[in-house]
Structure formats: structure tokens, C-alpha cells
Write a structure and sequence with these properties.
Helix content: 25-40%
Structural class: alpha/beta
Distance between the termini: 57 Å
Radius of gyration: 24 Å
Largest sheet: 7 strands, mixed
Low-confidence stretches: none
Bound molecules: MU-OXO-diiron
Mean pLDDT: 97
Shape: elongated
Number of helices: 12
Strand order of the largest sheet: 1-2-7-8-9-10-11
Strand content: 15-25%
Oligomer: single chain
């Protein structure tokens, strides 16, 4: 494999994982990339590595430019194995390399994984001179691990941003302007929703720190690099980090015999009637990561489940457990469902929504058996009231 030049003497040497379809519970329908960058200067520097099982691709791309043993520094912005997994292998191939990592968490994580290597721990604001260029390290703790940092090269105006601004998106075009922009923006949103959503405050603080930098290129840890649409991705991160929601509804459910599904369809249609676009997700048929991407910027979240053995359906339980961990902000929600006799699922769903801080905007909708036209009409009236109460005309 060949290195891809991104600037004079700076190359993409990462790995493209076209067939990745799962990333710790996140469905990655467009694959991903693990981005690593090689800087040829007086001191040859590698920024990040790749997943351990993709090390051969990294090594062959590096070898297309230099003798790998000549690497002087390996900067590890983040110790998660998708970026740091090949450090053990690289340390053997680059005996002279010093591994730059954040203090104390990066060094601690790398030591736990790879044992004692030649580490140099850095703090926020530290600078490393590599010849004609300098590398400035800026820690961004909990974006999204304690060890996370980004690296800025002022001479090139490149920000090596690790997970921030990334996307799980495999393509042959390395830059934003070489790909379909709406697709890239969607994947960036999906990435933020599924990985960074719990850390909005940290993302907001990081954006404030990064706003002082003059950035020409954001060299991400995943997906495409940003050079033509930097303002767009920064503005999107600003909105996402504060939990800005749009006047939209997301209706999510699982249904045993289609009655809960009928209620879901009525709810979606009733929102639309009120001028509130609604999206409709049967959890049996949609990747959860896409549902999360839709819900995290939607003002309204309706969650429905039939009752099975006094519980909610497992797909709904999984969804609620997943979004609870993501700490969603600023949503109005309610529960609904059809049931045969007990109907416990609907109360359980409502409890989970409350427990994750979602403001309940409507009494739970409970229907025994198949909803009648009159019951569906009542549901429609209820959605009208929700829209009017919460300020939507
Ligand atoms: Fe892409 Fe947090 O690793």
C-alpha cells in the first residue's frame, strides 16, 4: 500500500477498514479508517498508529516513503486500541522511537497494554521541535477518554485531532471535498452522537481552546480530513456540544403483533400534521447507531414497546440502556404501547426515559389490543396538545 501525501513531507499512512460493520456496539455501515500520519522532518514523526490487526497496512504505507526503523517519534494522541493498537509492533520495528503520550493517563494506558517502552509523557501546552516544524500538544480530557489529546503543527496549520471531528467512513478520497459532503456530515453526526454525546461539556471546552488556533487542515483519527468545510464541522460541533435540538420527532418502537406499530405510525403522522417532521424507526429493522443519530438532535422522542412477560421487548430495553449511557440532553419524550393484558412495558419505558433526564411531555399511551379508530384519534389529539404546549404551532 502507498502513503498518500496530504502536505509537503506529510503523508496519510493509516488503514482503510472497508468491511468494518461493528465498532463496540455501533453499526458502521460505511466501514471506517484508522488514520495515522507520517511527518518527514529532521526527526521523523508518526502521529498515531492503527488497530493491531491492520498494522501490515500501516507498515507498508510507511515503507513506501521511508525505512520504518528511521522513525524518531511516535505521537499517541489516544490510547484506545483502534489508534494505539500497533504501538507494540511499531516499537520493535522502530527501536529508536520515543513514544509521546499524555501524562498521566496516556502513559498509564500504554504501559498497561505494552509494558515499559521508551515513553515521553507530555502535558497540555508542551511543544516538541522536530526540525522545521513544531508539534504542540493540547489535552482534551474525556473527549472521549481521560488520556485524549490533539496535536497541532503551527507551521503547517494542521490539527491532528484524534477522535474529534472523525467519522466511521471508508473511502478512497482522503479529504472532505473528495467525497459527498452530506454523507460525510451525516457520518460525522452519527459518530458524535454514538461516541461523544456524553461529553458535550468537554467538547465545548475543547472547541474554545481550539478556536485560538489557525487551522488549515483537520487531520482526523477516523474518516476524511477536513480542509474545505472546516467552518461547517466546527459549527456543527458547537451545536452538538450544547445539545441543540431541532423541531423534529423521532418515534422508536418494537412491536409483537403490529398494534404498537400502528400507534407509532399514528404518532409520526400526527407530529407531521403539526408541522413537525417525524422519523419512524422499528428497532427490529434499523441499526441502533442510526436511530441514535436521528434522535440526538430531535426535540421529541416517543418510545414504544409491547409487553412480553411483564417486561418491555428486549430491543427496546437495549435501545434505552444504550441511550441512557449517552446522557441525551434537552429532549421531550413519552412512552406508548399496546398490550394483551398487563401492559407493564409502557410504565417501564416511561421510567427509563425519566431516569435519563428526558422531560415527560405526555401521559403514557396505553392501548389494550389493536387500537380502534377512536383510540387512534385520541392519540392524534394528544400529539396536537403536545405540539401546542411545547411551543410548536
Ligand atoms: Fe477512535 Fe476513542 O478511539
Amino acid at each position: 500500500m502507498q502513503a498518500v501525501k496530504i502536505a509537503d513531507d506529510i503523508y496519510f499512512v493509516g488503514a482503510i477498514d472497508w468491511s468494518l460493520r461493528e465498532f463496540h456496539g455501533y453499526e458502521t455501515g460505511r466501514g471506517s479508517t484508522y488514520n495515522a500520519y507520517l511527518i518527514i522532518d529532521d526527526k521523523i514523526t508518526l502521529i498515531d498508529t492503527v488497530k493491531e490487526d491492520r498494522a501490515d497496512e500501516l507498515i507498508s504505507r510507511i515503507a513506501s516513503v521511508i525505512d520504518i526503523a528511521a522513525i524518531d517519534y511516535i505521537v499517541s494522541n489516544h490510547a484506545e486500541p483502534d489508534h494505539a493498537g500497533s504501538i507494540g509492533k511499531l516499537a520493535k520495528l522502530c527501536p529508536n522511537a520515543t513514544i509521546i503520550t499524555s501524562a498521566p493517563h496516556g502513559q498509564k494506558n500504554l504501559t498497561a497494554r505494552f509494558g515499559e517502552l521508551k515513553y515521553q509523557a507530555v502535558k497540555s501546552g508542551d511543544t516538541l521541535n522536530i526540525g522545521k516544524r513544531n508539534l504542540q500538544f493540547i489535552t482534551v480530557p474525556m473527549l472521549h477518554w481521560p488520556d485524549s489529546m490533539v496535536t497541532y503543527c503551527p507551521e503547517e496549520k494542521i490539527l491532528f485531532s484524534s477522535d474529534a471531528f472523525g467519522q466511521h467512513f471508508a473511502s478512497t478520497g482522503r479529504f472532505d471535498d473528495e467525497n459527498d459532503l452530506p454523507t460525510v456530515m451525516y457520518e460525522a453526526k452519527k459518530y458524535y452522537a454514538n461516541i461523544l454525546m456524553p461529553y458535550g461539556k468537554q467538547a465545548h471546552n475543547a472547541l474554545a481552546a481550539l478556536s485560538k488556533l489557525d487551522i488549515k487542515t483537520i487531520a482526523t483519527g477516523h474518516g476524511v480530513l477536513w480542509r474545505s468545510h472546516i467552518l461547517s464541522i466546527l459549527a456543527a460541533y458547537e451545536r452538538w456540544s450544547v445539545g441543540e435540538v431541532e423541531d423534529r420527532a423521532v418515534v422508536v418502537f418494537d412491536s409483537m403483533w403490529h398494534s404498537t406499530e400502528k400507534i407509532a405510525a399514528e404518532i409520526a403522522d400526527a407530529f407531521a400534521e403539526q408541522g413537525i417532521p417525524a422519523e419512524f424507526f422499528d428497532l427490529k429493522k434499523n441499526p441502533m447507531a442510526d436511530v441514535v443519530a436521528a434522535m440526538f438532535t430531535a426535540k421529541y422522542l416517543a418510545v414504544g414497546s409491547s409487553t412480553l412477560n411483564n417486561q418491555m421487548l428486549p430491543n427496546v430495553a437495549k435501545f434505552l440502556c444504550y441511550i441512557k449511557g449517552l446522557s441525551p440532553l434537552h429532549h421531550l419524550g413519552f412512552a406508548f404501547g399496546s398490550y394483551g393484558w398487563g401492559g407493564q412495558s409502557i410504565g417501564l419505558v416511561e421510567n427509563e426515559l425519566k431516569a435519563m433526564g428526558i422531560e415527560i411531555c405526555a401521559e403514557k399511551i396505553r392501548v389494550a389490543g389493536v387500537p380502534t379508530p377512536a383510540q387512534l384519534d385520541e392519540i392524534r389529539q394528544k400529539i396536537r396538545a403536545v405540539a401546542q404546549m411545547s411551543g410548536t404551532p
